[in-house]
Every structure is written in C-alpha cells, then in structure tokens.
C-alpha cells in the first residue's frame, strides 16, 4: 500500500494564518513569513511611540510659554521647578498649566473613544458623537441653564457628563432591544436617530431660553479656555478608568475586526466585548466632552492618523492614538492663540487641521483597514 504523498506547505496560507493571528491578538505561527521579515517591528513601533511622547511633552511645555503674553521658556521651567509669587509664574501656575493638562487628558480620552467606536462598529467614519454623546450632553446643558438657572462651566459640567452617559445608555438599550446579538449597525442607527431627537429637543429649548442658547453655543464650539483646575481631578479619574477599560478590549478589538463569526470561533464573547467597549467609550467621551465641549472631529481624525504608524493591531493603534490625539489638540490650542488677535477656539482650529489630514490619508494608495 503506497504511503500518502505529503502536502507541501503553502506560503500564502502561512501568511494568511499569521495575519489572522495578528488581528486576533494572538502570536503568529512559528516560522510565519511576517515574523521572519519584521523581527524588530515591535521595537520600531515602541521607539516611534516614545518619539511622539517626547513631542507631546515638548508641545505641552511650549504651550505654557505661548499666549497673550509671551513668556520665556527659562521662566516656564523655573515656574515648574522653583515657583514663586511673580506675575509670570502665577499665569503659568493658575491658567496655562491646568489648560495644558486638560488638553492632554481630554485629547487622549476623545481620541481613544473615537478609536474604540470605529473598531467596534467597523466604520471608518464613526466617532463618539455617533452614539449620542454630544447630543445628550448638549441637552443636559440646556436643561441645567434654562430650567434650573445654573450658570458657569464648573456648575453645568456635571450635567453634561450625566447627559452624555444617559444618552449612550439609551442608545445601547434601543439598539439592542429584542436583539440576540450586539449588532454594531443597530447601535449606529440607534445613535444617529436618538442623537437627532435629542439635538432637536435641545435646540428647541435653547431658543426658548436665550441664556441657555448662549451657554450652549460657547460649549458646542469646544475650547480649553476658561476651564479651572477643579475639573482636572474628576476628569483624570474618569480618564484613568476609561484607559483601564480600553486596555482590556485590545485583544477583543483585533478579533472583532475579523467579523463576529470568526471572533466567536476564536473563543471571544462578542456581546460582552461590545458592552465593555461601549462602557469605555461612555466614560472617556462623556468626561472629555463635558470638560472641553464637543470637539467631535478629533475622535474621527486621530485614530486614522494613528493607524498610519501602528498598522492594523488595535493595541498599538490605541497606544498611538492616546499620544497623537493630545498632540493635535494642544497644537490646535497653541495655533488658536497666535493665528488672530485674541483667541480662536481649539475646536475650530482642530477642524482646520483635521480636514487636510483626512484628505491626505484618504488619497493614500494603500489605506489601512479599520
């Protein structure tokens, strides 16, 4: 009896297997072509990530010197290391330093929230606002100002956060009502529908109460100006919780990128993973949106830029987004101080920066898949 002829290994199958394992957060198969060709790729990614982190630190330091009054970098360093009661040190300590920290925290939160939404829905045009975060926060601000007479950012910021959380929860309940599985398309449709309803209600109430309309208009633009240090501690706590939740979703995101059926075959619980992702998005986007306003374009742009350097691995993409998003927001804030006399809000400048970036990324010959 003749022995069966051994089947030769197909290098294409080996590469496909390695790609599937990489997407799913699993180590590539032994002897895979991808690993042989790129043995130092994680090292290069880490080195580039550290370079972007250094850029973020330098940009934050530069933001402390730029403003209506220019302050020398030597004075800025003295204010950080050996503060005194001089006027320049007071400006840095009481105004610009909290503003820079706010930009780093809110930028990272909005960027990661956008990356999570895009990966969960497998929609390259998704951002946190698609789940009703902005609409819920806006409606809550109108109610706080118009109904309860609450004025001042530090007072209604808590209403904005609560409105964002409630809106996202309502989107999930409506999108998943009667469904056996957590279909991302249903979530997107529910988010768009409820967002439109909440925005309409908020606009109608704002027209009835002119004072609420003024507050809403100032918040909707999105800015780092006028925020006190009191917001930093609760925002930092919320961002920390959101980062921890996002860190646990990295492997799930890689599996979900292959489709629900493949993720289930790999042993992932798709419904539980999407609930965890949605919870992380709610905490991150809700806290950041309440703190700096509706800077929605950042959550759309930063993940696309991060994928340009990280590749399809969701874990690297989240890490890059956490650094690149605050770089963009701080850059927009600094440019807004020097472009025109006075100041241009960071939300407006961020849109000016983001549009060319997205156009360049869209015209690339080899786009990176979500």
UniProtKB/TrEMBL annotation:
GO BP terms: siderophore-iron import into cell
A GO term for molecular function: transmembrane transporter activity
Sections of the chain in a coiled coil: none
Compartment annotation: Cell membrane
Cross-referenced InterPro entries: ABC_BtuC-like (IPR037294), ABC_transptr_permease_BtuC (IPR000522)
UniProt KW keywords: Cell membrane, Membrane, Transmembrane, Transmembrane helix, Transport
Residue ranges, annotated region (Disordered): 1-38
UniProt keyword Iron, yes or no: no
UniProt cross-references to Pfam families, sorted A to Z: FecCD (PF01032)
Topology of this chain in the membrane: Multi-pass membrane protein
Transmembrane segments: 46-66, 100-117, 129-150, 156-175, 187-211, 231-254, 275-302, 314-332, 344-362
Family of this protein: Belongs to the binding-protein-dependent transport system permease family. FecCD subfamily.
Protein name per UniProt: Putative ferrichrome import ABC transporter permease
Lineage, top ranks: Bacteria, Bacillati, Actinomycetota, Actinomycetes, Micrococcales
